[in-house]
Amino acid sequence: MTLSTWLTFFVASWAISFSPGAGAISAMSSGLKYGFARGYWNTAGLILGILFQFLIVAVGLGAVLATSELAFTLVKYLGVAYLIYLGWRQIRTDAAPVAVDAGDPQRASIRELVMRGFLINTMNPKGTVFLLAVVPQFVDPAQPLSMQYVTLAGTLAFTDLVAMGVYTLLAAKVLRMLREARHIRWMNRVFGSLFILAGVFLATFRRHS
């Protein structure tokens, strides 16, 4: 992989990472509910999900999702169900104000935040098909593939760490300004609806033949 090829992918990665989607919604929701320090753990799960997607593409399993209607549909609707479930839970969340970084026994554990982010990116065949379409354009088949995949995966993981960190921090800043239960209730409904909307959009996604 040449330097110019990597730079092109690096620039494209920023656009990919900052583009609105389920990951951005999840990052903002976590920042809103738990503040930046704890909410950012959700991003760790999102990154693990991206790396898992890259692994699927690298070993060729992504081609199965791209060509098998049954496999694609199964994974897609698992993702749809999970996003709608997260949305419903968000809407139903208690509207009591949350203290940022305070000891709240009801808030999600770090493991739960990481797993939530991982599942959001893992159960999204749209991401796999997207990587399957984009990544090969930056890979030189005449060169060893493993290091090229590692380089591309690391690049996208880095830009996503920054992008999701920005989303989480912005939401955490908003949280500090919310003091009344009605404000928290409104924000929970907004983010819950966004999760459900993301699930609906994923349900309408069709792979191109």
What is the H/E order? Answer: HHHHHHHHH
Number of strands: 0
Give the overall shape.
globular
Question: Could you list the spans in which at least 5 consecutive residues all have pLDDT below 50?
Answer: 95-106
The overall pLDDT, averaged over residues, is: 78
Strand content: under 5%
What assembly state would you assign to the polypeptide chains in this entry?
single chain
Structural class, from helix and strand content? Answer: mainly alpha
Cα gyration radius (Å): 18 Å
Largest sheet: none
Total number of helices: 9
Termini gap: 28 Å
Number of domains: 1
Percent helix: over 70%
Report a brief summary of the structure.
This protein has 209 residues and is mainly α.
Write a structural description.
The protein is mostly helical and 209 residues long. The protein has one domain (3-180). The protein has 9 helices and no strands. It has helices spanning 3-18, 22-39, 41-58, 62-67, 69-91, 110-122, 125-134, 145-177, 181-204. The chain is globular and about 60 Å long.
Write the topology of this structure.
Layout: H1 3-18, H2 22-39, H3 41-58, H4 62-67, H5 69-91, H6 110-122, H7 125-134, H8 145-177, H9 181-204
Helix pairs in contact: 1-8, 2-3, 2-6, 2-8, 2-9, 3-6, 3-7, 3-8, 5-9
GO molecular function: homoserine transmembrane transporter activity
Membrane topology: Multi-pass membrane protein
Family: Belongs to the Rht family.
